[in-house]
Structure formats: C-alpha cells, structure tokens
Write a structure and sequence with these properties.
The structure is a single chain. The protein is mostly helical. The chain has one domain (about 25-510): Up-down Bundle (Cytochrome C Oxidase, Chain A). It is about 65% helix and about 0% strand. The chain has 17 helices and no strands. It has helices at about 15-20, 25-55, 65-85, 85-100, 110-130, 150, 155-185, 195-230, 240-275, 285-295, 310-325, 325-340, 350-370, 375-380, 385-415, 420-445, 460-490. The longest helix is centred in the middle third of the chain and has 35 residues, at about 240-275. The model is unreliable at about 1-15 (pLDDT under 50).
Length: about 525
C-alpha cells in the first residue's frame, strides 16, 4: 500500500464551491467541520479574553455585571456545544477513521453530510439566539442553563436551548455512523486487536454520544415546555424540582467530558509510538480502558451535586465512583510513559503536544481528586479551583491534543509541511500562557474566590492580574499556531506520503489521499504499532 507522492492532489474534483457543500467524501466533511469549529473557537476565545480583560482589576473596567455574565455565557456555550463536543470526532475522526481501518468511506456517507448540515443549523440557531435581536437582552444564564434562573430569565433561553437540542442530533448521527463503520467496514485482517487506538477512542466516545445525548435533548425539551406551557418540571412554584434539572443535565454533561477527552487520548496514543520509535506499551490495556472510561462515566454525574442536599449514602457512592474512573485513566498515563521509556524520542512539534498533553492532563486528573473528596469539595465547590480543573481537562487536554493531531496529520490532510520552528515556538508560547492563566486560578480557588463574579476583593488582584496576562499570551499562541498552519496550506513545501515513517494505514496513501482513499481495499497482516521490528 505504499505510494510515492508523485502527484499533488488537492481536494478540487469535482470543482466548485457547491461540490464541497454537497459532498459525501468523509475527508471533505471532516475539513468543513474543522473550518466551522475553528470559527467558533475564535469567537469563544475572544469572549474569554474579554472576561479576563474585565478581571485585570477590581470593579468595572469595560462591561457591567450583566455584560460580564453575557461574555462568559457566550464563551461557555460556543466553546462547549459548538467547538469541543464536535471537536476531534467530527474533524480528525471524520477525516481519518475510514483511512485508518482501510475503508473507502464511512458506512453512511449521506448521513455524514446530513450531520454537518444539522450542526450548521443548530450552530446558527445558537449564535443568533445568544446575540438576540437589536435592543434585546443577551443571554446571561451561563452554558448550563440552570433552573430556576433559566425559567425566569427574560433573555432568549428557548431559542438557545432549541439550538443545543438540534446540535444533539448531529452528535448522535456522527456517533451512529462511526459505530457501524467500525463494526462493518474494517479491511480484511483489521481485527479488533489490530485497530489503531485512535479508532478505539472514537468507538468508545461514539457509544457515549448515542446513549447520553438523548438525555440532554429531553432535558432541554422539558425546559422549553416549562417556559412555553407552564408545566412544572423544574419550577418549584409549579410543583417541580430544580435539582431534577441538575441531575438530568449532568447525567449527560459529565459523560460528554469523555466524548471530548477520549478522542484526545487516542490522538496521543497515535503520536507517541511514531516519535518514540517503539511499540505502544500495553495496547490492549489502553484499548479496553477507553471502554471502561465510557462505562463508568455514566455513573459519576452526582459529584456535581455534593452540596445540593443529596443523601449521605448517595454522596459516598458518587465519591467512590468518581475515584474509580481515575483507574482506567491512570492506566493510559502509565502506558504512555512506558511507551516513552527507552524510546528513541524525537521532539518534533506533534510529540511536544503529546508530551504536553500528558503533563497537563495529569494535573487535571490529580486536581479532580479533591473535588471527588466530600470534605474538600464543600470548600472548593463553585470556586476558581473548579474553573482551573475544568480548563486543564478541556483546553490542556482536548484542545492541546487537537492541535497536536493537526500538526501530526496536517501533511496528510493538505500535502504540505508547516514551519517546524514556528510550530515549536507556538507550542511553548501556548504551554507557558496556559499555565500562567490557570495555575493562579487554583490558588484563588483554594483561597475561596468564587467563580462567575465580575468583581472581587483586592486581596485577589495579583492572582487575577497574572491570570489575565497569561490569557493574553495564551490567545497570542493560538494566532501563531493557526497562522503557521494556514500558511503551510499555501506556501509550505510539499510533503512526502509518509514523512514520519508511520506504520498506520492512513500514511500508506498519497498526501492528500485520493477521493476513494485506496485503489484496492488493503489486506492487513501486521500490527499497527510494530516499531523497532519493522519500519514503514
């Protein structure tokens, strides 16, 4: 299956804008998802910078308290529903899954493009609803839409939750497509224990997408019915229970964390053995730990409600289950480190992102332990400690892995190489800026600084100032990183079909791959991670 890159094949046939918009080619769909989510990443990131700019100093700087609430609502809603949830699965997953298993496309190509159209529809509804018509009050509930405020708020709660409801269908369609593709479209010889670990991670996260997403759709649907029809699901005045909303919301929203992070773990598992030039350590343990994480994730939502008045037995059980999810996660971390041990490590930019992910995600995991502990969670609940922990998981984990994956597979996607020196500078700028942003927030949270406040006591000024400076460096890093990648598309030197000497199937095609991926369906006879004994 090895090919020389004798012909540069950009995605131009059939030609024209509409050929892209109506395509059923999984690679084009993955790229369109990429352009869409990066657009919303930009918008959400600018809102985050606005939040941090307001917090440079105490008192009001640029926006009033309502404006501050609007900014973090815009940031959270777009970042979670429009960027991180589709994130890696819809972009790298769509582009790479058929290539990695030796298929010519996903199982349902038309369903695939439908999922993208549904995503765009939901995104349009969310964005226009967040902004609202001229003169209206912008949404300020936060991305969780917590009752009772979301019931009483005069802002556009109904259209925003409707948009999130629509987005759920795109997630379900993608998950169903991936599950069927992995079960039915694998090339001859591509057994379950020869599958790339990125495919295992997509499979695990797809199960969560299909099983958990309907719950949040029902929850948002009930909220809409309550506001429109006055039915008492969550409103205590109508006989409802606001805590029921929290239970239903987090039953979905905690598993969705693993929709975001499992594919990121898969990306790291693909990068490490290629740049360490040795087999992945503990392949089956990593593969099955993905399924274990997906399973346990459905039973830990209660740790978001430790201070809500649940029974002591419930708190103990949810605490124990939350600690339990750390076991399969730790298995992955130990195996990644085992892969690096005594390897011939090459610190190119994808490897820097993979190692950065291990470091940052380990901090995310370790800082999750105090939040799973009943006594310390009472003190840390709803403080900046939670904000920092969440961002070490989402940005330090998912986003860093996505950027690392883009650097790794960019030559395959576009047939062009980016500037490696700028890529490394971008990584270190991001690494320093990110830690400078959120380490002070751990300190503030431990000291009792509550989150979601537009003002603060003077004693927290130094930490807020440092965090805001770090956020500006963090934002600058992304402009540097993506500027380099965009430059590569137009000016980068041509990439070889397999510049990293990877053994995985996607690297055995031209760069970029042809429309049908493979001239003939390949027959797999070797393990994907046999580095050291066989080189590509």
């Amino acid at each position: 299956m090895s090919h020389e890159n004798t012909e540069y094949r950009p995605y131009l046939e059939p030609k024209g804008f509409y050929a892209w918009f109506w395509t059923v080619d999984h690679k084009r769909i993955g790229l369109m998802y990429l352009y869409a989510i990066l657009f919303f990443f930009l918008l959400a990131g600018l809102c985050a910078l606005g939040v941090r700019a307001e917090l440079f100093y105490p008192k009001t700087q640029f926006v009033d308290h309502h404006g501050y609430n609007v900014l973090f609502t815009l940031h959270g809603t777009m970042m979670v529903f429009l960027f991180i949830v589709p994130g890696i699965p819809a972009t790298l997953g769509n582009f790479l899954l058929p290539l990695m298993i030796g298929a010519k496309d996903v199982a349902f190509p038309r369903l695939n493009i439908l999922s993208f159209w549904v995503y765009l529809l939901g995104a349009a509804v969310v964005v226009f609803s967040l902004i609202g018509p001229p003169g209206s009050a912008w949404l300020d509930t936060g991305w969780t839409f917590y009752t009772p405020y979301s019931i009483d708020s005069s802002t556009g709660v109904i259209p925003v939750t409707l948009g999130a409801f629509i987005l759920g269908f795109a997630s379900i369609l993608t998950g169903m497509n991936f599950i069927v593709t992995i079960h039915k479209m694998r090339a001859p010889g591509m057994t379950w224990h020869r599958m790339p670990l990125f495919v295992w991670s997509l499979y695990s996260s797809s199960l969560i997408q299909v099983l958990a997403t309907p719950v949040v759709a029902i929850t948002l649907g009930l909220l809409i019915m309550e506001r429109m029809l006055g039915i008492g699901f969550f409103d205590a005045g109508l006989g409802g229970d606001p805590i029921l909303f929290e239970n239903m919301f987090w039953f979905y929203s905690h598993p969705v964390v693993y929709i975001m992070i499992l594919p990121a773990m898969g990306v790291v598992a693909e990068i490490l053995p290629v740049f360490a030039k040795k087999p992945i350590f503990g392949y089956r343990a990593i593969a099955y730990s993905s399924l274990a994480i997906a399973l346990v994730s459905f039973f830990v939502w209660g740790h978001h409600l430790f201070v809500s008045g649940m029974s002591e037995w419930s708190r103990w059980i949810f605490s124990l289950l939350t600690f339990a999810v750390a076991i399969p996660t730790a298995i992955k971390v130990f195996n990644w480190i085992g892969t690096l041990y005594k390897g011939s490590v090459l610190l190119d930019s994808p490897m820097l992102y993979a190692c950065g992910f291990i470091f940052l995600f380990t901090i995310a995991g370790l800082t999750g332990l105090p939040l799973a502990t009943l006594a310390t969670d009472v003190h840390l609940h709803d403080t900046y400690f939670v904000v920092a922990h969440f961002h070490y998981t989402m940005q330090g984990g998912t986003v860093v892995a996505l950027v690392g994956g883009l650097h790794f597979w960019w030559p395959k996607m576009y047939g062009r190489m980016y500037n490696e020196t700028i890529a490394k500078v971008g990584f270190w700028t991001l690494f320093v800026g990110f830690n400078a942003t959120f380490i002070p927030q751990f300190v503030m949270g431990y000291q009792g600084m509550p989150r979601r406040y537009a003002d603060y006591l003077g004693e927290f000024h130094d930490m807020h100032f440092l965090s805001s400076v770090g956020s500006m460096v963090n934002g600058l890093a992304y402009f540097l990183i993506f500027g380099n990648l965009i430059w590569a598309v137009y000016k980068g030197k041509r990439a070889a079909a397999n510049p990293y000497n990877s053994l995985s199937l996607e690297w055995q095609t031209p760069s970029p791959p042809p429309l049908t991926n493979f001239d003939e369906v390949p027959t797999v006879t070797d393990w994907t991670y046999g580095y050291g004994s066989k080189q590509a």
